[in-house]
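Encode chain A's predicted structure.
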Amino acid sequence: MTKVLITGGAGFIGCNYAAHLLQAGHEVTIFDNLFRRGAASNLDWLQKCFEGGFEFVYADVRDPDALMMAVDGQDAVFHLAAQVAVTSSMTDPRVDFEINAHGTFNVLEAARLSGRQPLVVYASTNKVYGGMEQVRVVEADTRWEYADMPLGLPETQPLNFHSPYGCSKGAGDQYVRDYARIYGLPTVVFRQSCVYGQRQFGIEDQGWLAHFVIAAVLGRPIKIYGDGKQVRDMLWVDDLLAVFDLALQHPEKVAGKVFNIGGGPDFTLAIWHEVQPYLSKLSGRDLQANYYDWRPGDQKVYVSDIRAAKKLGWQPKVDPQTGLQWLWNWVNDNEALFLEH
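Encoded structure for chain A:
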């Protein structure tokens, strides 16, 4: 049995991983301020499923003392807590910095000072690569595509933080990496692409596929920023949890390293021109969207080169069409959850 702390443990990814670990018999502590939409619902779901068989710490990563107490005695820390919206980071960059950059520093210091050398897994983002204007793309009928990178973007792509969100997450990314070099702390950075799945309360700025599904189910308007041909590689949440498990079971294989984690070139979608036909078929009506200007740092294409992660023995399994059907079913079965928000 392993003792695992999950910051942001009531969030979409956090609650799914908490459930997965609890089912496997691990000891789990969830650290969350319940600020995010859906977090209280996810915590309630966990409490009902596991009858309080885990510890919940109602606290914020901006509180170093709370983190010191929570990290004490842990074997691993999965740092998932974050401010996740680019637009929110532009409206209030100070709060974005305090949560993402300073909060990550607090996690690292708590781990370093615990004296136990716990594994620290950091959920980073493809936004650390910026808008990637220097990467050549070509336009096809329904999508943009890389002109010269059929296997996707590798970890060697130069970093180019764009937007306060990109800067704050990027600062955390590099701090996590450097704590392995300087202090020997076993840390790993997972630069995650578009993760989607059950218990995701998606918004326009984060969790866009879930947001589209929720809007389609409830008959709400759908907004597209850009031309709708932007391409992303899609990763079903259980496939992400599988690489989390690999890190937990074999920290020596990942310590000090950075991995792009996504669906890779086989599991991609154009965010509207290729999603719209699927959603229209599922909903039984021709869905339309309203278009708005491009957002700062929005990449026309982001597809992860996942060859490094595959060398760990990991492989994403759920294709976007299957995952979209599963997500549609879950939202329909839990429509009442979304009427509350």
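The longest strand covers residues 119-125.
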